[in-house]
Amino acid sequence: MDERCCIPDSASSSDAYWLLLQVLSLIPLWHYLLLAAFILFSLLYNFLELHFFQDLFSGFAGSPVLLSYNSSSQIYHAVVSKCDVLRGRYFATPWLCSPHLQTLFLNYFGRPPFLKYARELFRTADGGTIALDWLFSSHVSDNVGYEDESVPIVVVIPGLTSDSSSQYIKHLAYHTAKRGWNVVVCNHRGFGGVSITSDISYNAGLTEDVRAVVNHLHKERSKAPLFVVGTSIGANILVKYLGEDGENIPVAGAVAVCSPWDLLIGDRYLRRGRVQKIYDKALAFGLLDYAKLHQSHFSRNANWEGMEKSVSVRDFDDHATRVVGKYEVSVDTYYRRCSSATFVRSVSVPLLCISALDDPICTTEAIPWDECKANKNIVLATVKHGGHLAFFEGLSASRIWWVRAVNEFLGVLHSSKYMHVQDKEFSTKSSIGLIN
Ligand SMILES: *[C@@H]1O[C@H](CO)[C@@H](O)[C@H](O)[C@H]1NC(C)=O
Fold it and tell me: Which molecular function GO terms apply here (predicted)?
């Protein structure tokens, strides 16, 4: 009798499993390895939120930029609708087909252009020091010696733990200066290699410093239109500043890139996702590095012991940021009071907001779509991919899409009649009031 084909009637279930095992053992090992590799690849593909196949099937054409605006917005009809970059598509670098790869590449490589700033130290009324890093167009282009007082100035507000030396800031500064405009990076207090010289350090809602710098620039160079570009936390500070000051502001136009919008929602998002927790830790380590550079300030004005143990942005904000900023009760109070989303409706200057829908740090959940739509001065441009502040494009990933979008928007706005002009009577009236 052939043992292999005949199963006795009395076969128990354990015999069945034994038989199954024998059958499975007939499958060559390399088939199993292939299956394991496939499963591993699928897990990694999902974990990294890769979109390579999506790109492949769409013929590497990228995805269209989604524009959200009030139907009677002149900023859309007269400015944004003339911007090819914003009316076009964004196609991510094929080998950076994931928000995480984009964001990591920006932070570890970034391919920043070579440039050298000229430093100006700005003193605030409370004794604080702000490092202003200038990049003049004459330093990066050929028209040496050409100085026109009406050349626009772009003021840049960096993100959390970023300064003028950060890769994306260099991309923005270089390409803006290359176009013929002057750039000044307004580093946060304690950044750019300067000490914290008063009891105040920066937080997500501290708008006094940008206001002071913008007013200073407006006084010194009254003929130059002033544009402000804020990135990440810098975008939150920018929108809050624009909302607080409304019409009475010497800013001609602005761009908010990858703003967190709502710090409470942002905090919950960072603490919820598995991948987000990694970002949260990394951001907290960055904050601790910065705090350790200014130990005497933080041990005097914050809870140093608690702060040192921070493993999340929330911990750091709880022990340091909100204590230094004197936000009472809880860190949530600080988040609520400083969220720029609540200031959106009083923004009175042309404002372009750019965000990636797959931003792994500043979640789309926090984007105030309806509030932006209700304000005619605001156009919201979102793209499907891009990560946080990355948006690399081209095969060599040497260009950043949002930098091109910012420059084109500001250029078209500058040549339109829709730049914001501060009401002269406003400032004269208030100075007469002062004399009386
Ligand atoms: C557009 O703006 C007008 C006036 O500012 C406002 O009444 C209207 O509700 C806005 N539209 C949307 C969709 O919010």
Answer: monoacylglycerol lipase activity; short-chain carboxylesterase activity
